[in-house]
Design brief:
This protein is α/β, with parallel strands linked by helices and 361 residues long. The protein contains twelve helices and 15 strands. The chain has one domain: Alpha-Beta Barrel (TIM Barrel), CATH 3.20.20.
Length: 361
């Protein structure tokens, strides 16, 4: 039986974030040591895949020409931002360039930027996720965590100013549609919490269109965007600047773990990211970020091939304004880059004309 692994891994990294972040990723809990140990600071238990929904008619993507409203919302010009999670920083000498954006995760009560100060000081912006590991959406919407959240938002904005970053990206609750986030409340309660957190930023004039540096990124599991669940987590155009979706090729890893003889198709970028692009096109042509992408190495050629496919996909879809490689593990699979062919592929991607984006505010 031939089964696609779509939806298996775009949300897998909560396993690591849940195992470590939800127990405390705040500065001081884990020493800044080798990249391998740093990689374990982000992730969480696999979320349940969203039920499929028949795809609607294809929609043309909005123009991404410089100076358009969409360009202002993304804060990016000159192509897409090229980046990764923290371990990818150690590959910069081999990639022949500096990352433009780095994925960072925090939990409610953390201070920003904490141990990751050097990331921003090096002139790299970030997608910053603030997740709750206790307070419910209802409590957040009621204002119970206003002091901690307001302080964090101010720290993010002030860090962008201090380190001369025209734009920095904020995500409240990475993949709220995932299984591990369900104890926090319903989709409707998530929207209420998101709206409340956003209103705190608005009241402090922290948003990009009101004197601040913050751009708001809503990140959902990739197949949620094409299911009936997508609209249930949608706060609305006035509350979101950018849509985000993670995606992984885990075919070899999944096949190796299967005890039923099931085979898995190699996942393509289009199968992963077409849903979020269509949702973006249907909602004002919003820009799209890919906060995490990666591939296993079974067979060894799978990883460099997927990276090359991602380069081509981002190039063909200028509405994608950022792509970040996940150089870690998750869901029992590993996406770490250890072979030269993969380093070469990622270096080629990082030097592609379509991946020379930079932030402009």
């Amino acid at each position: 039986m031939n089964v696609s692994n779509l939806g298996c891994m775009s949300h897998h990294t909560r396993e690591l974030r849940g195992g470590h972040s939800r127990l405390g990723i705040a500065a001081g809990l884990v020493a800044l040591t080798a990249a391998a140990s740093l990689a374990a600071l982000a992730g969480g238990p696999p979320a349940l895949a969203a039920p499929a929904h028949p795809a609607g008619p294809s929609l043309a993507l909005a123009s991404t020409s410089n100076g358009s409203p969409q360009g202002s919302q993304s804060g990016v010009t000159g192509g897409a931002l090229f980046g990764g999670n923290y371990p990818v920083l150690h590959l910069e000498p081999q990639l022949g360039r500096k990352l433009a954006i780095v994925r960072l995760y925090y939990h409610l009560g953390s201070s920003f930027p904490g141990r990751w100060r050097s990331v921003l000081a090096g002139g790299r912006t970030s997608i910053v996720s603030l997740d709750s590991f206790g307070p419910s959406y209802a409590q957040i919407a009621a204002g119970d965590e206003d002091a901690a959240i307001s302080k964090f938002l101010q720290q993010v904005n002030q860090s962008a100013i201090k380190y001369h970053l025209p734009a920095i990206y904020f995500d409240f609750e990475h993949e709220p549609d995932g299984h591990s986030a369900r104890p926090l409340g319903t989709p409707a309660q998530f929207i209420q919490a998101w709206d409340h957190v956003h209103q705190l930023a608005v009241s402090m004039h922290l948003d990009w269109n009101d004197g601040g540096r913050l751009h708001w990124v809503l990140i959902l599991i990739h197949n949620t965007w094409s299911s009936w669940r997508g609209p249930s987590f949608w706060p609305g155009l006035g509350e979101v600047d950018i849509l985000g979706s993670d995606g992984y090729n885990s075919a070899g890893c999944r096949a190796g773990k299967s005890h039923s003889g099931t085979s898995f198709k190699e996942t393509t970028p289009d199968s992963l990211f077409k849903p979020v692009l269509k949702f973006a096109a249907a909602h004002g042509g919003l820009p799209v970020f890919i906060p995490e992408f990666g591939s296993d190495t079974i067979p060894p050629s799978a990883q460099p091939q997927f990276i090359a496919e991602m380069q081509a996909y981002v190039t063909a879809h200028p509405n994608i304004r950022a792509a970040e490689y996940w150089d870690s593990g998750g869901g029992g699979c590993t996406y770490k880059i250890t072979q030269q062919s993969s380093i070469t592929a990622l270096a080629t991607m990082g030097k592609a004309p379509a991946l020379q984006g930079h932030t402009t505010g």
